[in-house]
Write a structure and sequence with these properties.
heterodimer; A: 11 strands; about 0% helix; B: six-stranded mixed beta sheet; 12 strands; about 55% strand
Chain lengths: ~110, ~120
């Protein structure tokens, strides 16, 4: 298995633009997590899904953030409009039986 | 609600020296426990996990951790550190809440290895 796949690996955009981050979980995993990591705040859980259904989105910072999981093999995290304070590394992870496997992350820079 | 404390933000050890990274958790029952490692520019990689059974668990890269229920701890150890072990280490606690799994990560410990 290729592991968790995230795209793009790097994204540079200007304030106000829409940003879409993509994740392909490991096949057969029933949980998918989105995290954000910054120097100041560390690793933060934004939202997680179980069998494609959002379970807890209490970590999503604002209404500008939204996440979808239309099927078991794909999820997106969208920021609209983006702001400089959204600059961070965004990780997707999938799990089966409590063990999480992380993707390589997307480094987002909002200018 | 569960919580995880990693009291050491940054640790420096000499190559070849032993290492112990501390982790304490708070949870009413026996949780699932994990240690992850993150190298610069990389995602988190699972080092080892404890679900049940033997309280001393072996992981990859020569790491081990011991679950001590009486101390609510799950400290990570390595007898001889290599320069390539320089990274950030995260302890995590997994539980089930409302029928769904939930994992809480600690704030991480950055390990520096000096020659």
């Amino acid at each position: 298995d290729a592991g968790v796949i995230q795209s793009p690996r790097h994204e540079v955009t200007e304030m106000g633009q829409e940003v879409t981050l993509r994740c392909k979980p490991i096949s057969g995993h029933d949980y998918l997590f989105w995290y954000r990591q910054t120097m100041m705040r560390g690793l933060e859980l934004l939202i997680y899904f179980n069998n494609n259904v959002p379970i807890d989105d209490s970590g999503m910072p604002e209404d500008r953030f939204s996440a979808k999981m239309p099927n078991a093999s794909f999820s997106t995290l969208k920021i609209q409009p983006s702001e400089p304070r959204d600059s961070a590394v965004y990780f997707c992870a999938s799990s089966l039986r409590n063990e999480q496997f992380f993707g390589p992350g997307t480094r987002l820079t909002v200018l | 609600a569960q919580s995880v404390t990693q009291p050491d933000i940054h640790i420096t050890v000499s190559e070849g020296a032993s290492l112990e990274l501390r982790c304490n958790y708070s949870y009413g029952a026996t949780p699932y426990l994990f240690w992850y490692v993150q190298s610069p520019g990389q995602g988190l990689q699972l080092l080892l996990k404890y679900f049940s059974g033997d309280t001393l668990v072996q992981g990859i890269k020569g790491f081990e951790a011991e679950f001590k229920r009486s101390q609510s701890s799950f400290n990570l150890r390595k007898p001889s550190v290599h320069w390539s072990d320089a990274a950030e280490y995260f302890c995590a606690v997994g539980t089930h809440s409302g029928g769904y799994q939930k994992v809480t990560f600690g704030t991480g410990t950055k390990l520096q290895v000096i020659p």
